[in-house]
């Protein structure tokens, strides 16, 4: 077996299951899960109908590159959403559909890391999506964690990274809006990272899966390709973005997303994926076209999350140290104590599941930046989110 498998840590939800197994929850209270970032809003009916209408195409092998119509729909969406200059994003060269971004994020690292270079590093935020770490380890690289704390508005302090670390860096993961903090990187910071990538010759992989869940319709979060365009960098050199229909369109089970950016990187990643055997089924591709072409359901989705954030934060008030995030659907409260104890006792007393923040982070430079926080995903229906907030207030008030 690959010895690097032994470096993988248990997934956060394995740790959470063990934590909950040590206590019993009250049977008279219904369980409310705020731990998993799985959207619970209804998928758009027209997408499901499109999927159903094309099930006969399961009789055909799909191409790894995806059908031209899907790549064009993705390129059109990116161009409009991120204000890219017209026709600079070529669907033949810059876009690659993938079976959800989790699979693509992992595979991308395997294709990028050059094992022949000494001590390769993959830099990533801390807390982080655990795929970043596992992918780095199995690619033969060392993950290097960049702490995201309240002192820096939950963004990495890139000025604290040494020149040697940048020189060893082959891949920088960023997540904007962030999971779990919801912090958004502005265009100025993104452009700074692009200049650092040029200087030290590394790739930037921007995980933007939460980019469509924001609160101000007139001020959507910027993206990495948008920062490139703002610089007049129409080749998107060294920059790659990951997007998905899971959160945007409430279609996590469709497993549909895309990777876009630097044409040379996309070309080599396509080469890798041709051997990987991961083409998206044709019915899913056609349904994805319908989803990417429609914004009305996305606006309705944002409105539903806005209602939940408004209601929950109004109830929590000053009972919990929590703030509205820049974007996304998570709350990241400071529980003023041990996050594991908070999560375990909350489950035992109120039958509510939240995720301890330390499970989403690693010890780095003397701290675990997730410690003392819990992640709450406001994915349940509005009534359940309100009930959960009321129970949490009862819990912290006793």
Automatic annotation (TrEMBL):
It comes from Pseudoteredinibacter isoporae. The keyword Transferase applies. Keywords: Aminotransferase, Transferase. The lineage of its organism: Bacteria, Pseudomonadati, Pseudomonadota, Gammaproteobacteria, Cellvibrionales. It is an enzyme of class 2 (transferase). Residues 31-392 form the Aminotransferase class I/classII large domain. CDD domains: AAT_like (cd00609). InterPro entries: Aminotransferase_I/II_large (IPR004839), DapC_beta/gammaproteobac (IPR019878), LL-DAP_aminotransferase (IPR050881), PyrdxlP-dep_Trfase (IPR015424), PyrdxlP-dep_Trfase_major (IPR015421), PyrdxlP-dep_Trfase_small (IPR015422). NCBIfam families: DapC_gpp. Pfam families: Aminotran_1_2. GO terms for molecular function: pyridoxal phosphate binding; succinyldiaminopimelate transaminase activity. The keyword Transferase applies. Its cofactor is pyridoxal 5'-phosphate. GO terms for biological process: lysine biosynthetic process via diaminopimelate. Its EC number is 2.6.1.17. This is N-succinyldiaminopimelate aminotransferase.
């Amino acid at each position: 077996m690959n010895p690097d498998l032994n470096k993988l840590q248990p997934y956060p939800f394995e740790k959470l299951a063990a934590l909950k197994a040590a206590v019993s929850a009250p049977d008279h209270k219904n369980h409310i899960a705020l731990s998993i970032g799985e959207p619970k809003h209804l998928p758009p009916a027209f997408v499901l109908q499109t999927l159903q209408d094309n099930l006969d195409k399961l009789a055909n092998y799909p191409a790894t590159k995806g059908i031209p119509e899907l790549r064009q729909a993705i390129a059109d969406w990116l161009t409009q959403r991120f204000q890219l200059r017209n026709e600079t994003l070529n669907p033949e060269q810059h876009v690659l559909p993938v079976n959800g971004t989790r699979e693509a994020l992992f595979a991308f690292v395997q294709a990028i890391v050059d094992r022949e270079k000494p001590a390769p590093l993959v830099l990533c935020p801390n807390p982080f999506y655990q795929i970043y770490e596992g992918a780095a380890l199995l690619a033969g690289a060392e993950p290097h964690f960049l702490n995201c704390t309240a002192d820096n508005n939950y963004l990495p302090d890139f000025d604290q990274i040494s020149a040697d670390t940048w020189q060893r860096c082959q891949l920088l993961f960023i997540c904007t809006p962030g999971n779990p903090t919801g912090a958004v990187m502005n265009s100025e910071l993104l452009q700074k990272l692009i200049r650092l990538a040029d200087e030290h010759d590394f790739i930037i992989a921007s995980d933007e899966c939460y980019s469509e869940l924001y609160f101000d319709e007139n001020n959507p979060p910027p993206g990495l390709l948008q920062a490139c365009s703002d610089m007049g960098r129409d080749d998107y050199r060294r920059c790659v973005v990951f997007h998905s229909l899971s959160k945007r369109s409430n279609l996590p089970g469709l497993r549909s997303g895309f990777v876009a950016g630097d044409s040379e990187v996309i070309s080599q990643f396509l080469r890798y994926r041709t051997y990987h055997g991961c083409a998206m089924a044709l019915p899913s591709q056609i349904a994805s076209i319908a989803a990417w072409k429609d914004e009305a359901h996305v606006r309705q989705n944002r409105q539903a999350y806005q209602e939940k954030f408004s209601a929950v934060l109004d109830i929590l008030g000053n009972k919990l140290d929590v703030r509205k995030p820049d974007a996304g659907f998570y709350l990241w409260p400071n529980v003023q104590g041990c996050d594991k104890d908070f999560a375990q006792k909350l489950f035992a007393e109120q039958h509510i599941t939240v995720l301890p923040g330390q499970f989403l982070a690693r010890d780095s430079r003397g701290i675990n930046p997730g410690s003392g926080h819990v992640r709450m995903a406001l994915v349940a229906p509005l009534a359940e989110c309100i009930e959960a907030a009321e129970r949490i207030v009862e819990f912290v008030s006793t």
